[in-house]
């Protein structure tokens, strides 16, 4: 890592756009697969392909958009917390999950918003905990430095 920060990711405004687009793509692709199968299953025997394509066209963009909103809000809160706290740690991600869950459920009232915020924080805490545990379990063992063995002096 350089002394000016980690350059492996773009700066925050671009990360938000990138994450939003990536979330849309992930939601649209996953939803396309799901709704293709569901549309084919629920269509009459001779019209399964048409029914599957119709279901994908109707629902995949909607779920992709829902994923994009979640990803964009999460990334925005993450970038805001990085700027405010001047740290990059798992607490930023957990708090971002909390805020994202709360904002997305705000239309349902304070109770629904609080429950959704708590669930968002819990979900991200579990994900971060598993990630940290997996990195510790699968990390290579530390290298043991061997002292260089000096050959005994030769007799003259």
Describe the structure.
The chain has four helices and no strands. The longest helix is centred in the middle third of the chain and has 38 residues, at 48-85. Among the domains are: 10-73; 89-130, no CATH class. The chain has helices at 12-42, 48-85, 90-104, 110-138. By secondary structure, the protein is an all-alpha fold. It is extended. 72% of the residues lie in helices and 0% in strands. Mean pLDDT is 89; it is low at 1-5.
Helix-strand layout with pairing:
Layout: H1 12-42, H2 48-85, H3 90-104, H4 110-138
Family: Belongs to the Tim17/Tim22/Tim23 family.
Organism: Diversispora epigaea
GO molecular function: protein transmembrane transporter activity
Characterize the quaternary organization of these chains.
single chain
Quick one: how many beta strands? 0
Terminal-residue CA separation: 52 Å
Structural class computed from helices and strand pairing: mainly alpha
**What's the shape?**
extended
Q: Roughly how much helix do the residues carry, as a percent range?
A: over 70%
Question: What's the helix count?
Answer: 4
What series of H and E elements makes up the topology? HHHH
Poorly predicted tracts of residues: 1-5
| Strand composition percent | under 5%
């Amino acid at each position: 890592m350089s002394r000016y920060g980690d350059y492996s990711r773009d700066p925050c405004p671009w990360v938000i756009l990138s994450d939003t687009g990536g979330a849309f793509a992930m939601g649209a692709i996953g939803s396309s697969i799901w709704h293709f199968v569901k549309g084919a299953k629920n269509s009459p025997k001779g019209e399964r392909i048409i029914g599957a394509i119709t279901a994908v066209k109707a629902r995949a963009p909607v779920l992709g958009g829902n994923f994009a909103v979640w990803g964009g809000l999460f990334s925005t809160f993450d970038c805001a917390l990085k700027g405010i706290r001047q740290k990059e740690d798992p607490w930023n991600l957990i708090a971002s999950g909390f805020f994202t869950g709360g904002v997305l459920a705000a239309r349902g009232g304070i109770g629904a918003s609080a429950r959704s915020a708590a669930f968002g924080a819990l979900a991200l805490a579990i994900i971060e905990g598993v990630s940290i545990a997996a990195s510790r379990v699968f990390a290579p063992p530390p290298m043991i430095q061997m002292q260089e063995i000096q050959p005994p002096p030769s007799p003259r």
